[in-house]
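Hey, can you fold this one?
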Amino acid sequence: MRTVTVYSTGPSCQRCRLTCQRLDALGIRYHLVDVHEERNAALRAFLFDELGYREAPIVQVGTDRWSGFRPDLIDALVKGPGVG
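Sure. Predicted structure:
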């Protein structure tokens, strides 16, 4: 399976929690990055300012990315290559 990274805005983000819960339920391993931590300020600026994302989480699978809680795309990870 490709590497899955979840860029979260922290534990108060409901969509972030739902995304992680769905990944956990499906047994999909992921790396969680809190972009609101001070050490991730440059990453936060890149994702939101340069790439234009407006909601969290931002999920990256290989070179594919999406934002928000997308159970359809998460479920597709179990089915095989490609997202969406």
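Helices lie at 14-25, 41-50, 71-79. Let me know if you want another pass with a different chain boundary.
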